[in-house]
Every structure is written in C-alpha cells, then in structure tokens.
Design a protein that fits this description.
Blueprint: E1 2-6, H1 11-22, E2 27-31, H2 44-49, E3 57-62, E4 65-70, H3 72-82, H4 93-110, H5 116-124, H6 130-154, H7 169-183, H8 192-202, H9 205-210
Parallel strand pairs: 1-2
Antiparallel strand pairs: 1-3, 3-4
C-alpha cells in the first residue's frame, strides 16, 4: 500500500494527491500537521523520513522493500514512470520539457518564497505585520501567475487544461497554487486563461477528491 505523509492545506501534498487520483492509485494518508505541536514536520520521527522537515513524503513498496521519496515533483515523475497508465506527461520530448517548465514556474518561482516556513520567518523573526506578510505573498504569487497566464494564453498547445484537453502534470501544480492565491485574496482578474483551466480542474473528480476540504484532517 502506498502511503502519503501530508497536510490538507499543503499545496505540495495537494499536487501529489491529484496525481495519485488521476492515475486511480489507492493510497493511505498520514497526517503531518504543520502548525499543531510546534509543527509535527519538525518532530524527530518525521525528520527520520524527510530530513528537510517538509511535506509531502511518499512511500511505496518495491520488491518487498519500502522506498521513501520526497519533493512533490520527484514523486509525481516517479508515479508517471512506474505507473504509466493515464500518462501525466506528453509523449514528445519538446512537449514534455514545455509541460515541466510550466510546473517549475510554480514549484520553483512562486511556491518557495511563499511557503509556510518563509511566512513564519517573516512574522516571527523579521516581525513584519500581517498586512506586510500578505502583501509579500500577493506580490510574488501575482507576479508568477501573470507570467504563466501569458505563456498559456499564447501557446497553441493550451486546451481545456494546461496541455490539451485532458488533465496532466502541469494541472497538478496549477490548481493548488490557484487555491492558495484565492486564500490570500490575490488579484486574479487579469488571468482568464488560468481561471478557465482551474475551473475545469476543480470540476474533475480526481481534483475534487484531492481538494483540501475533502481531506481527513481538514479543519
């Protein structure tokens, strides 16, 4: 049985849940609460699984042994290689690189400067106000999503989803980022392509099942 260690609001965990659901794979969830008890991701037991003290961590049984993976993109690429039914990446190399670039725009350019530990550092160590912290979040999120809007609005490969008319790799990253952007009240009014694709995503059964509100630890 596969096991996913995550948190309902973690966008990185959300990405992996979507990928697992798109592929129809069964998995067990283990809750790692990022706020309670000082942050359960910092506990020695979890650090033994992931020394980075981040979620998600993912386990799969291979040849009778348990393999542990970290980093959402690495986990999703692993799933696509080992469980190739319902491919998340396109067949052609150039298209695969393009789709990865869309996902990386979120995973490397938007998310790292806005994740929980960065926001906590802004508040606790630099002692910025909540208003300043939220302005920081909105600035970097809107900046990154504006670029993504431009890419998707002008590329002929964009369909109902980020690449064509079936949900795939990049959509696993887009929907969680839009969810976060809406939580922080980002201005998405100038991003019609992103919002159209996001709407198609959140109406899809795999995304509905993966949504934060539908997780066992949802608050």
């Amino acid at each position: 049985m596969m096991k996913l260690y995550g948190y309902f609001r973690s966008s990185a965990s959300y990405r992996v849940r979507i990928a697992l659901n798109l592929k129809g794979l069964d998995y067990e969830q283990a809750v790692v609460h990022l706020v309670k008890n000082g942050g359960e991701q910092l506990a020695p037991a979890f650090r033994a699984l992931n020394p980075d003290a981040l979620v998600p961590a993912f386990q799969d049984e291979l040849d009778g042994e348990t393999a542990t993976l970290t980093q959402s993109m690495a986990i999703i690429e692993y799933l696509d290689e080992v469980y190739p039914d319902v491919a998340l990446l396109p067949a052609q190399s150039l298209d695969r690189a393009y789709v990865r670039s869309l996902a990386l725009s979120i995973a490397c350019e938007i998310h790292p400067v806005n994740n929980l530990r960065v926001l906590k550092y802004l508040s606790a160590t630099l002692q910025v106000t909540d208003e300043q912290k939220n302005a920081w979040y909105r600035h970097w999120c809107e900046t990154g999503l504006t670029v993504l809007e431009q890419k998707l609005a002008t590329d002929k490969r964009t369909g109902r989803f980020c690449f064509g008319d079936a949900p795939g790799f990049a959509d696993c990253f887009l929907a969680p980022q839009i969810y976060n952007a809406q939580r922080f009240k980002c201005d998405l009014s100038g991003m019609p392509t992103l919002m159209r694709i996001n709407q198609a995503c959140i109406e899809h059964p795999a995304f509905i099942k993966a949504a934060p509100a539908n997780q066992p630890d949802a608050e």
